[in-house]
């Protein structure tokens, strides 16, 4: 069963979409990758742990399992994880009820992907789902100093689109993402997990 999401109204200036868990269901693949990587450190990933840490920035995410990990080890594991993820892209599922909103407004309203993910993963993911062309701007963690829950990715996307934040709608699937959008002044944030 798919849920119909709220769409733009005449006052809407732009639509902003998170990627992982919003446009595409990638979280299961990310979890498989990180469960394998962390398993080498004797860590068994639980549902509760993943729920708490899945959207956390890279270094604290890795330190939750390997407390003395620094940026160098986090980057090394992340590079390995990204390669593993690319190899598993065939397992990623588009979330059609969200993509339908983007398709309906393509060419009518400015739209952006606003993600805490890294560009080298996000672009192949959007390409695999066949939706990259729908978006005018793609802002990733690579484009800002502070990723979600900081407002930076949303602020940058809206600046690039030259739109008033209050008149934007963001589609998100996590508390961290919603916090980021609201902190950037986005006028309306839709939790795609709600019926």
Distance between the termini: 10 Å
* Tally of individual domains: 2
Using the coordinates above, name the CATH class of the largest domain: Alpha Beta
At the fourth level of CATH, the homologous superfamily of the largest domain is: HAD superfamily/HAD-like
Rounded to the nearest angstrom, the radius of gyration is: 16 Å
Number of strands: 7
Residues in β-strands, percent: 5-15%
Mean pLDDT value: 93
List the helices and strands and how they pair.
Layout: E1 14-17, E2 24-25, H1 27-39, H2 47-53, H3 58-63, H4 71-87, E3 93-94, H5 96-105, E4 111-114, H6 119-129, E5 137-139, H7 152-161, E6 168-172, H8 175-183, E7 188-191
Parallel strand pairs: 1-4, 1-6, 4-5, 6-7
Antiparallel strand pairs: 2-3
Description:
The chain is α/β, with parallel strands linked by helices and 195 residues long. It has two domains: 14-26 and 93-191, 3-Layer(aba) Sandwich (Rossmann fold); 27-90. It contains eight helices and seven strands; from the N terminus they run ββααααβαβαβαβαβ. The strands form two sheets. Strands 5-4-1-6-7 form a five-stranded parallel β-sheet, with helices on both faces. It has a two-stranded antiparallel ribbon with strand order 2-3. Helix 1 packs across helix 4 (71-87). The longest helix has 17 residues, at 71-87. The chain is globular and about 55 Å long. The N and C termini lie close together (10 Å). The mean pLDDT is 93.
């Amino acid at each position: 069963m798919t849920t119909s999401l709220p769409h733009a109204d005449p006052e809407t200036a732009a639509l902003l979409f998170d990627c992982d868990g919003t446009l595409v269901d990638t979280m299961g693949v990310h979890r498989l990758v990180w469960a394998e990587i962390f398993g080498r450190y004797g860590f068994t990933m639980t549902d509760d742990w993943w729920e708490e840490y899945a959207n956390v920035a890279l270094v604290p995410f890795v330190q939750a399992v390997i407390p003395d990990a620094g940026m160098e080890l986090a980057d090394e594991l992340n590079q390995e994880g990204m390669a593993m993820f690319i190899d598993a892209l065939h397992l990623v599922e588009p979330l059609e009820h969200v993509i339908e909103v983007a398709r309906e407004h393509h060419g009518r309203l400015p739209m952006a992907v606003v993600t805490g993910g890294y560009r080298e993963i996000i672009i192949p993911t959007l390409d695999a789902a066949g939706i990259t062309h729908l978006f005018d701007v793609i802002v990733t963690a690579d484009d800002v100093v502070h990723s979600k829950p900081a407002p930076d990715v949303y602020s940058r996307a809206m600046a690039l689109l030259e739109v008033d934040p209050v008149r934007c709608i963001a589609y998100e699937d996590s508390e961290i993402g919603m916090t980021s959008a609201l902190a950037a002044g986005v006028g309306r944030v839709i939790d795609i997990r709600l019926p």
